[in-house]
Write a structure and sequence with these properties.
Blueprint lengths: L5 E5 L8 H13 L3 E5 L5 H7 L4 E4 L16 H6 L4 E4 L2 H6 L4 H14 L2 E6 L3 H5 L3 H12 L9 E4 L13 H18 L2 H6 L1 E5 L4 H8 L6 E4 L6 H14 L2
Parallel strand pairs: 1-2, 1-8, 2-3, 3-4, 4-5, 5-6, 6-7, 7-8
The structure holds 2-phosphoglycolic acid (PGA).
Length: 248
C-alpha cells in the first residue's frame, strides 16, 4: 500500500518566508508527487493560501467547541473557513505550555474532522521517558487517548519525540521506524488493518535536508512535520524534493 507522503511545515509563532519565497515553494509543490503543507500562524492562513494555492494550508491548533465564550481561541470551522485543509493538534509545545491533555487533543481532533479538516495529531515521548525505557508505553497511551474513537484514514499522526524538537538531535531512522511501526500496530488494534494501512504517520523533530531522505525512506514514515527548517525556503524545498525522491 502506497501512502502519499506529506511534508508539512510548522512555522509556529514566526512570520515565515516572504511572498517571493512562498511562490517558489508553491512551484515546488505544484510539481511534486507528494503533498506539501504549510501551517502559518492563523492570522496568515488566508494570505499564504492566496499566494501558494498548490500548498495545503494547516492551522496550528483549534478549539474543540463549535463556538462560544472562549476568548482568544479559534474553532475548527473558523480555521477551515480561512482556507485551511488540515490542523495540527496536540503539538508537544501546546501539551507542555498550554497544559493540553490527551482528552483535550482528542476533542480538538474530533472537532477538526467535523469541520472537514484533516487533524495532524502529535504524539511523542520526553527524553526522560525514553531514557527510562518508557517511550513505547508513553506513545501508545497517547495514541489510545488522543485519537478519535472513530478514526479513519483522514487522521494523520505525527510522531515527534520531544527531545528531538528544535534540538538538532534527530531520532535515528531505526529509532523512528521502530516507533512508527508500533504506532501502526496500535492503529490496527484500535481501528482496523485497512485504516491502519492508510493512515499517514509523519516524523517530526529536527528534520533537515541532510536527514530527510533517510528518514522518509523507512517503511512506515510517510512524511515529515518540519519546524525550524520550514522557515528556510531552500531547506524546506529540499526536504520536499527528498520526499519526492523516496516516494514509492
Ligand atoms: P523542529 O520542529 O523541526 O524545529 O525540530 C518540529 C516540530 O515542532 O514540529
Amino acid at each position: 500500500m502506497t501512502r502519499r507522503k506529506l511534508v508539512a511545515g510548522n512555522w509556529k509563532m514566526n512570520s515565515g518566508p516572504g511572498s517571493d519565497d512562498l511562490r517558489a515553494i508553491d512551484e515546488v509543490a505544484n510539481r511534486a508527487t507528494v503533498d506539501v503543507a504549510l501551517c502559518p500562524p492563523a492570522t496568515m492562513i488566508q494570505q499564504v493560501h492566496a499566494i501558494a494555492p498548490n500548498v495545503w494550508i494547516g492551522g496550528q491548533d483549534c478549539h474543540a467547541a463549535k463556538s462560544g465564550a472562549f476568548t482568544g481561541w479559534l474553532s475548527a470551522e473558523m480555521v477551515r473557513n480561512a482556507g485551511a485543509a488540515m490542523v495540527i493538534v496536540g503539538h508537544s509545545e501546546r501539551r507542555a505550555f498550554a497544559g493540553e491533555t490527551d482528552g483535550d487533543v482528542r476533542g480538538k481532533a474530533e472537532a477538526a474532522l467535523r469541520a472537514g479538516l484533516l487533524p495532524i495529531i502529535c504524539v511523542g515521548e520526553s527524553e526522560q521517558q525514553r531514557a527510562s525505557g518508557n517511550h513505547v508505553a508513553t506513545v501508545l497511551a497517547q495514541i489510545d487517548a488522543s485519537l478519535p474513537a472513530a478514526s479513519d484514514e483522514r487522521v494523520i499522526v505525527a510522531y515527534e519525540p520531544v527531545w528531538a524538537i528544535g534540538t538538532g538531535r534527530t531520532a535515528t531512522p531505526d529509532q523512528a521506524q521502530q516507533a512508527h511501526a508500533f504506532i501502526r500496530d496500535q492503529l490496527t488494534k484500535l481501528f482496523s488493518p485497512e485504516v491502519s494501512a492508510k493512515v499517514r504517520i509523519q516524523y517530526g523533530g529536527s528534520v533537515k535536508p541532510n536527514n530527510a531522505a533517510e528518514l522518509m525512506s523507512q517503511a512506515d514514515i510517510d512524511g515529515a512535520l518540519v519546524g525550524g527548517a520550514s522557515l528556510d525556503p531552500r531547506a524546506f524545498s529540499d526536504i520536499v524534493h527528498a520526499a519526492r525522491a523516496v516516494h514509492g
